[in-house]
Amino acid sequence: MNFGPIDWVVVVAYLAVSVAFGVRAKRYIEDLDGYMVAGRRVGASLGIATFVATEIGTVTFVYFGELGYVAGFSAFFIGILTMIAYTLVGQTGFIIEGLRRHRVMTIPEFYELRYSRGARLLGGAILFLGGVLNMGIFLKFDGIFLSEVMGYGPDAVAAIMVLMLVIVIAYTVLGGMFSIVVTDYMQFVVLSVGMLVATVVILLHLDVASIGIAVTASLGSAGLDPIANPRFGWTFVIWVLVSSVAAGALWQPGTSKALASESPAVAKRVFFWTGLTFAGRAIIPMFWGAAALAYFGPGQPSAVAMPRLLGQIVPAGFLGLLVAGMLAASMSTYSAYVLAWSTVLARDVIACTRRNDLPDRTVITITRIGAVLVGLFLLVFGLWYKIPDTAFQYLAVTGSMYVSGALACVVAGMYWRKANLVGSYAGLGMGAIAPAGFLLLEKFRDDLPAYLLFITDVNVAGLLSFLLAALGMVLGSLATQRSSPPKHLTVAEER
Amino acid sequence: MTAGTVVWLAIAAASAALFFGIAAVVSIYGIRDLRQLLGGADRARASRQRTPV
């Protein structure tokens, strides 16, 4: 057992303070804007803190640590490409500035402004499905990480999953975006300290040269060169670059941080500075994974190796701080994601099946019920589903199910006058086909005819989703300009 | 260590420095933003309570 009484005191104290702050923030909610986007009054530094906290969960450490363990330094390019993509979005205001100017709360709202309510319903349903599937493995990986670090082993995974879920859902349902912003700041500070502790302890136990030598000895050139690594290659590199730009601008939990900013200029600043942290967000846990390779050698279960290393070398007291940091990371991520997906369910799916908008109170109630249901799904899915390939690739392909179509619809909607309703349906539908095909057919890889085997390659399915979505938007729009004339945004809609 | 290893390690060190540097600055200035956000929300609540319906 690695986890001592001092560690428990640190973790319980942190949890108590965090939940108390989250629940207390409930008094600031006056309306839907307050619940969903914190009244659009979030300043730049706070916006950066909550954005980083949202995009770093324990699952982030696990999937990047796993990549560091199986692919060595060659995985580092993912962090660099993500940094470039997010800073570009921040520097140019690509998409996010327009979305913030239109004062939408969710991305499918833009589809209604530019195309139709039906496009919003379809886009909302795909976003909800892709988002919830994407999040489906978070709880399981968090359970694995914490049970290994704390030394309880695989038997404790389910109990840890249930405990985390109860805490996170409680303050998300009660507090909404206000409680997320308030607690995210605290969690950002705690998770940064936790990351620093883990990095320093690893460097004290393993010298950098031995990690470098272990990577090249175990993996050869595949440990240094992403093109030579059979897990990656050019298809994966291009897919990561395109999907990072798309996710940077259109991933609802992250974009909602920009939409909560006090102005479009602040939204751009938040994206730029957050983007600069994204290389470290990926490379620091990848380095921990490479350290696990040096410490244990190959042969450990890939997702478990890095947490097991931390559990063995981080001293008592600091382990509590590390676990508090990881819990902080997870709570901020879950709360933002659960709120984002339940908001989409309430506003873009359920409300769009009716002719008139639902009252704010009803939307908040549906959002709260949706948050609980999403939480229950995470528990069941996490316990049952066995992910294909690495966790990172699973997350990227489920994310592509939505962002590929969204990229086509929003970019064309903002920057191409000929984009129309048929193009939006075709783009959204065709963007979802390849990832959905991968997730369904991958389980039957051995029974598939040869001509369909390409779809069971996760990298091909991911890249194909963007190509098909763009093709659907362009061909669908051009072929139906007369029967479905494009609708253009009016000045009045740019509130 | 090969040249490739050294380059990747240098990139890792720079990324970590950037991450922790921004984290330190944001931790300090984020408190100010948080106070403004909650202060603004408090003022809005107080003004709503004073306004007769």
Number of helices of chain B: 1
Would you tell me the structural class of the helices and strands of chain B? mainly alpha
- Overall mean pLDDT score of chain A? 85
Number of strands of chain B: 0
Largest interface summary: A-B, 49 and 36 residues
Order of helices and strands of chain B: H
Q: Estimate the strand proportion of chain B.
A: under 5%
The description of the largest β-sheet of chain B is: none
Question: What is the typical, i.e. mean, pLDDT of chain B?
Answer: 81
The total of helices of chain A stands at 20
Approximate strand percentage of chain A: under 5%
Helix % of chain A is over 70%
Low-confidence blocks of residues of chain B = none
- Rounded to an integer in angstroms, the radius of gyration calculated over CA atoms of chain A is 22 Å
Give a structural overview:
The complex is a heterodimer of chains A (495) and B (53). Chain A contains 20 helices and no strands. With 495 residues, chain A is mainly alpha-helical. Chain B is rod-shaped, with a radius of gyration of 23 Å. With 53 residues, chain B is an all-alpha fold. The longest helix of chain B has 48 residues, at 3-50. The chains are: A mainly alpha (495), B mainly alpha (53). The A-B interface holds A 27-28, 30, 34, 38-39, 41-49, 52, 73, 76, 79-80, 83, 178, 181-182, 185, 188-189, 192, 195-196, 199, 208-209, 212-213, 215-216, 224-225, 273, 276-277, 279-281, 283-284, 286-287 and B 1-2, 4-6, 8-9, 11-12, 14-16, 18-20, 22-27, 29-34, 36-38, 40-42, 44-45, 48.
